[in-house]
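PROTEIN DATA CARD
Card holder: Nucleic acid binding, OB-fold, tRNA/helicase-type
Chain length: 737
Origin: Candidatus Gottesmanbacteria bacterium GW2011_GWA1_43_11
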Amino acid sequence: MKKFTILIVAAGILLFSMRGAYALQSIDVTGDGRIDALDIKAILTNWLMSGSQSADIDENGKVNSQDAAYVLRDFGTILVSPSPSLLPSSSPQIAQEWSQHAHDAQHTSYSTQVVATPWKWKWSWNGPNATGGISSGKTSLPRNMQPVTGGGRVYVARGSGGVVALNETNGAVLWTASPGGAFNSTVAYDADTNSVFAVSANGRLYKLNANTGTTSSSFAGNGTSPLPLPPGIYQNEVFFSMGSSVYALNKTTMQLIWTYAAGSPVHTPPAYSPSRNRVIVATQDLYVHAINNANGQQVWRVKHTTLSGGDPGSSNANAEVSNGWPVIAEEHGYALIKLRLNWQTLWETYQPDNTAIRQFLSANPVHQALQVIDLDDGSKPFIANIGHGGFGDGGYMPMGFQPAVKKFSDGSEVAYVLARGGTIYDPRWDSHLGELMLDDTTIPGFQAGYFRFISFASAPISGDTFLTDEQPFISAAGDYLFANHWEASMFSLRITDRSAARGLYTNQIQTQALYTLIESQDGGNCNNTTHFVTGLLQNTRGYANPLGGFHIYCNLGNVYDSYWTNYAGTVISNGMIIIVSTSGCVVALESGSLTGFAPGLPVAVFQLFGQIGETLAALSQTTLPVTETNANSVIDYTEAQEFIGQTKTVTGTTAYIFNNGKSVLLGFADPHQGYFKIQIPKNSWEQFGSTFGTQLGRNKENLFTEGKTVKVTGKIVPYQGDPVIYVSDPTQLDVMK
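Structure generated from the sequence above:
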């Protein structure tokens, strides 16, 4: 860290006084045609080295802060001039409403509607108050919940809080309906019947009057489920999954058309293919089912993995389909099914080359995270070059992104994905936005299952790279892509050049950064009216965006940990960009002039601390809650959730100990399930001995082993849905037996 600190201070001073004129080609240290964070990395790697070095830009015989200053001065410059796009633009706008989960019954997560920039804040709900704090009555929202629109309203499923209808113009609550059970699934709006269809965890599908929220009718499924299982609507039918069955109902009469018995709990919502007239679901046992919509009979049932259905944890024997959804690529006749794999897949190294990735996944099929299945016969046409990632931490890797499918005006079709390839620091640092090929002909040289790299200079770590355990969720509209991270609730960009020559790691599809939305603007320069900041966006780390962006809260840091939903998403509907953040806030943006914004830092300082600061913050992991040691009572670990914000002594028997390289976690149950845990951050490991923390993985520590009863004292704080005590001093922890 000393090297980084010296570079930041020295380069920052030199940046404003330098006069040297050097060719951009020499400032592009890595020679990749761009002046970016990879050039900074090259300078750090060769820091203070003498002799002939490409990183010695000013050729003074030593790599130092002067060289870093030249890179910072020209940061973001692209040396390779983009050629005009040779491929078609998006098809004409058709659907104006995002009225059901993932936009349509095919779950494409794609809208033809584009909301013209600039954007301005329209309203928010379940988020900030007038001063940027927490609004009264704020709650978390269910995982995977997307706002949908119709009839001048925005509809939100609020779990045990029922279904809420908001005024589309100002976000005011129009009605709340709680007909029974918890509503953990995105609802669907139907204009023909002016109804909202909502699946409850009690197993019942409710049909609500969209004007009033009153129940028109309901249908009882077989079983119950807490999973997100949103209904789908196509023409006169509504489909939904519950228990081990799939149902098709007449949306007007709510009469049953057919029932399909899957033989295993159905863990995904149904997706519908109009061209095949088939309904697709996946079950707990990892089988994918195709149902003939004409009669409810099975067309095929297949399983293209050797893994077993179950919580993968750190085991490569299991996988899950729950918390995902089937996606239909209608033009090609494929169903795309994402698998949740185990945490250890994070540490595999993916080369930035499709041929090498295909070879690796062919030899190691347990790492194939995205299944592609032919709708006609259930066969597997090719391997998708997609590894696993998501909002992971501490041995837990959840279900990550779901593909977004776009059809172009010429009939060609691609899927937008998160793909792995090209490590920067360690194997976690290798995720990129990608364009997945679904055939061998769309782009010459790219086979079906290969992906094309999409440049994204606003990614939260370094240049185009996301951490694989921070992969965002994605959606698309026209030429716009939206990436929803757990802290930066929305990144947005416009694809400007996807010509056939683009797509390689060294020559990526070109984009223009649009606006960013972060959970909290930390550091004071907030505007709680427009919520817009022109300079540095800062939420526990910096987010670089030359256009600036929006913030939800002001000076609340990791507010998302208190309301963790494990999901964030963007929908585009009726002239609005609607974001649901990881803290459960719903934000609506619209096209309009940006006025009354908070001033930011100068561009030069912004570049310095925006891009470089992001990397250093992610590397250092030094910002931690302050623990207290004057506990006045002892509680069991099962009670910890009730005492967040208080100092307590907590006891329990460890069931899960894991070192992820950033922290040693002592868990009393699987992480990220709402149970108490202890974290010993890396910067405190030396307090526990020279060998502590040296071995990554599960149950590798000598001081603490699974099955031991421990007692820990400190302040209980939230972290990604779990109550946690951070330990920096060995005296806080006592192994009792």
